[in-house]
Amino acid sequence: STTYTRNPRPKPRKGMAKRPARGAHGPLESRKRQKLTREPPTSEDVTTSRQLKKLLEFHQDARDARHGLQSFKLLLDAIVANKDNEGELAILSGYLEAVNPVVEGPEAVYVPEIMTMWSYGASVGNDDLLSEVAALLALLLQATSLSLGLLPYGRGICETLLQEKQLKLISKNLSADKDKGFVISPALRLLRELVSYDGGVFSRRVFRAQSWTFAELTRNLDIRFRAEGVEDARKPSVRTNAARFLFACLKYLPSDNKSELLVQKGIMPGLLMRLPDDPPALVHEALDCMTKDVIEDQKIPTTTKSRVFWVRLMERLAGLYSYSHDPEDAEITVADRVHDFLMLTCTSPAAGILSKCNGLYPNSIILDDFSTGDFLWSDMGLEQLSWMDQYASDITVRNSSLLEVALKLRPWASIKQGELLVAIFKAAPEIIHVYFLEQKSFTFDPKLSMTWIGYSSFLFHTMQLPVPEHFGLQGDYASIPPPTSALLASIIPLPLTQNALVRCLEPKWPLVSLFATRLLILALEKLQTVLSMHAEAAAGLKNSPWRYASKKLVNDFCQRLPDLKDIVRWYKSIPDDSILCKATASQLLSLYYKVLPQVALAANFDVSPFLAKTLGSLDKPFEDPRDKGLVLLELENLLEAASLSPGMRWFSKLQGFPVSPFTVLLKLASSGGENESSETLRSILESVATEHQIVLDDAGLGPVFQALEILTKVDPEVSLDGVWSLLDNCVAKCAASPLKYLDLIPEYVGEAHEASAEINISLLTIALVEQLPFAVKSASSADLGTISKFISAFLGSSISAGENKDWIKALTKRMNSTLTAKTTIELPKSTKGAGTSKSKSKKSDEVKSRTSTAAQGKSAETVVISQEHLKGMLHEPFDGTEDNSALTKWANKGIDDILEDDYAAALIRLLGSEHTSIRMEALTNILKLAAKIRASTHSERDQLWLLLSELAESARGHVNTGPVPSAFTAFAIHSLPVLINPLHPLYPKVNKYLTRAPVWPAGKIPMVHDVLHGEPSDDDKYYTELSWLFGFLFDCLQRPGDIGVFHQTRWFEKVFASACNPYMKSGLRMKVFKVLYRATCIEGGSTTLVTRFGVLSWLESLGAGLEEEEERALVKALMERVWETCDQGHVEKWSRGGIVGMMKREREVEVVA
Fold it and tell me: What stretch or stretches form a coiled coil here (predicted)?
């Protein structure tokens, strides 16, 4: 409380009489010290409306007036707390009816006694009356909004409040002294209720009266909670109430008034700049309001939004990342909410701060100044790229505001700030280079701290960003590449210098070294992607600057990269138990060889010792199976490096191993099953074997793997030591002297060499013949028996793989001459149909019917699909179930819910109802829905309105006669998701079709010609458009009349022809089969397909050209389906027995198979 001091009363002078005391109402009364405490008003229970009316009669006695107001307030509190309390509602209704003005009009005054009290309080300066009347009116509006019967009274009160006399009273409350928050806050609550009343119908008028309603708003936004701790939600401060009044304005005002409000001086900064000091509830409300009512409002110009979200504000909002006043039980913290808000604001063009840029091209480059003509680039070589040097340090960006925001973030100290910065880089790639040029506050010098790890994580996610398509340009590549410095900054950011990376690879910091290795792996992978994009852009141009730019990029990149010797040194220093680090380092070594072979080859690095060490570790037991997977991954990486290294000694024995690396890996690949690692290992071994001319290109190592598989299947415990020793000798000698074994072929084959004109045999087979006598002398009888079985299986598999059979028979005789009678080599009696291949196809692995082996010679099992299985694969139920509730459900839903939850689609389907009344009602509701969408704020409202209006006009002539054509309803249903998503590849085509004519022609299928015969919107979206089309055509087939439409327009032929595309994937072809199956489910459909479109002959020819056994079986099952559902008598007569004969042949072939 404030303390006042009274001046001492002057003493009377002599001769002067003492002045008499004044009465209680004398002229000196106003000079007395005022009472500073506010006495609470008294109250009584209100039981009747007459009692309430009497209590609210005007009294000049403030106590009596406050007594009536407080009694009314308690009644309103009870109503708001329990809106179903009929007794209190009846009292309130009776009172409002009693004081209802007799003459209604713009000058009519509702609740006149309360307004008079308010005016009286203002005239005598009674702050209690000013406060309590405003609070009561706010509560009265809230109470009347709870009941439909009281809404007219509430509107009348709102009209009264918007009269000039009451507006001045509101302004007086708002302009009270700053320390009189109890006077200001009720007026702000009253304005909030007034703006939001009845869905915001009075919001525009409140805004027009802003000279009164917005009085001192900027000042009031600054009157916040001053005490210690967090503001009590039950006692909001003046600032909180002012902010909520603004939120209501932004929610309910039309977009034009909202735009005007946003740019008024001081209001939005006063609201948003002080958010870090506000209670958590208010921060959440502010961010939600700015998201839903400003950013997502497409009618507000982006220029207006950009004036709201200025740089200083964004920096201030970023301070909310460290907000510390969240309640303990908060599900979403302020930091999480502001993170979502900043992510949206900084990455969405709708927010106004993000401007469209040219990706990695600087803003100052004018691409039209460069030409693609070869004559401009001729033979200048790298000199033609000299213009790029000016962008190494002097770059202008279009998103300068966003750059300033990015530079204020601290990604090394906050994960969320790092995520925001990475999102900014993705939205505006032009910023990346400039950011790292100007951000000098943190370096990458290695130090094992949380700050360094946070910064490393930020760099990692930055490098993970994908390279923008066409480097950020729309349509196609430009005639010139982006500056190398900009590209390099996105591949390997500037803090990652060569010296810093080398220091990170010191053995004393294993975790730091692991981070640095992962960063280098990302950089090399990204460089590989960028180089392939350069090659794509330079395709077809002889002297394209793209070719020289790729060389410059590699040169500059290598200057930032550690030498391979540094990587090898760190790899050697990794302890054996650090399996993850070793696998990661091996991946980096492999990438050096694949992406930068010139750097790797210059290092003259021998992979053999590392390969031997890794192979040796595989023989040890692993406590965790995942550790073995990491070791196998390390081995795979080393093998990739070894396959690219000319210094790799594949066929020299390693220390500690009885055989060469090639044979060790061959053993590992043969025992690894059919997993992905084994396939990679086999591929590498086959490339090495064919490169050294050990095996033929066509057969590869397939016969070897087949022979080993046969041996282990017969006896899983068999010892193959003798086989591995023999194979190791043979491959080593073949690799060392291939010409020697070519010269031995005529000697070993003998007469068969001259008898056969075909020369087709692997040198490994010749080496086996030469080395077998030595193996016989040194091997035990058990090993010799295993060797003979292996050679028998190997020769049989070689014949199946296409090698010269006569020569192999001659070689078999020669080898048997060196063996005993008990261990002869025998060729399989039949070697047909099993064949081996260089590498097993994954597709054929998926087809379970192809499981034959070379030695066993079993014929492939035929896949048969029953009609039950076919139905499960292709059949979908018709849209026969009518959901009549769709006629009413949509009316109470929002536009987004109507479109996304299929309420609109369900309504459209009712146009195909069998009942005329339902069809007519559906048509009426579709027109209402179209009008509702057009009046909404949906971003695609015009296109959606046009679609529904055209559907209604096209269906109007069919509603009274029968179901609307299925093509109309199906097109409308399938077009809805296209129009909602502007990024859909068919979005421009659907819009173009809708603007072509207001009515769709009957007897035709909408837009099918544009998709099937027109150019795709993007080259890579052709099959996406076809997938949409086949789904649309499938839904077009509902009734027999729909078959007639397809027949007349001959779309069956064109759809079936598209399925013959050899590049079409099986999933898309399956959709064509679904269209065909749906046609067979309609009466007369199969007969029409056979007699008018020759579908059985088409299926027969299609099946003959398919490679997959399952697809061929599916085609056969479809043929059976068409035959069983057609009019067989009519078809037999029409085809003169030809169709019957064809079906018999198909069945006979199936039985034989």
Answer: none
